[in-house]
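Practice set, problem 2.
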Amino acid sequence: MVHELKTWSKYFNLVKSGEKPFELRKNDRGFLAGHELLLCEYNPETQTFTGQTLRRKISYLLSGTDAEQFGLKPGYCIMGLKEVE
């Protein structure tokens, strides 16, 4: 399964450089470890997509009551990312 996600330029570039190997998102798409993310760079100032994309695999998913005990709002998750081989 591949999830296409709008990603603001600031965060897109941090994922691209490897400084941000995770995503914090509302889990309204049924994310699971092993799924892939297609991150589409979006400029919020111009409200346009830049055309750049990154593909990452979800290597770890923190969600549900496990995530809530660490302060995440219900329905949100943190996904560990790795590059797609």
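Problem 2, part (b): a different protein.
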Amino acid sequence: MRPEVVLAAGYAGLLIAGAFVLEWLSAHTHRRSLRYRTAGFSYHEDHDHWQCPEGQHLWPHEFDRERRLVRYRAKAHICNACPRKTACTDSDRGREIVRPLDPWPHSEAGRFHRGIALLLVGLALLVLVVETARHHHIEEAALLAALLVIAALAARRLAHDLRAHPANFPDPSPSQGLRMTLTGADGQPPTSR
């Protein structure tokens, strides 16, 4: 087997493995950051509230439809009188916890990392296709074909997950500085009746 084929197969294998490592690391980092922000607090799903280490409750305060977040806040007078306030929050309005409604793949960061992972697998596919076209020995073609199947399955899984988890990006609105006009198929504004 030629060294060029072995190097190309190894490189493609590393790209595929790197794509899945990137996918796992980004999901792990997301879960870890959520745990860090809520360290010491426990969430009670049955009543939809958080409980602080001192036993006080943080109730839903605001639902942000655009960002798909729920903000929970403790009562200000309770937090301000708490002996652990300096270690917990610097706000005079009470401790706040923000909880995303959507899991990691729906987030903008999740879609970005999944897109990068898909790009890595696509690059691996390109390398394997080029090498398969260049070398026609049986054992080389078998190795490259096996890696092509693995890369194609990985690309299919990542692309399916990317399509299945749409990001909840807010729709643009005129208040965000975008000029939105309604036009017909001919590009002209509709006539008023």
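Answer key, part (b): DSSP finds five helices and five strands in the chain. Residues 172-182 have pLDDT under 50 and may be disordered.
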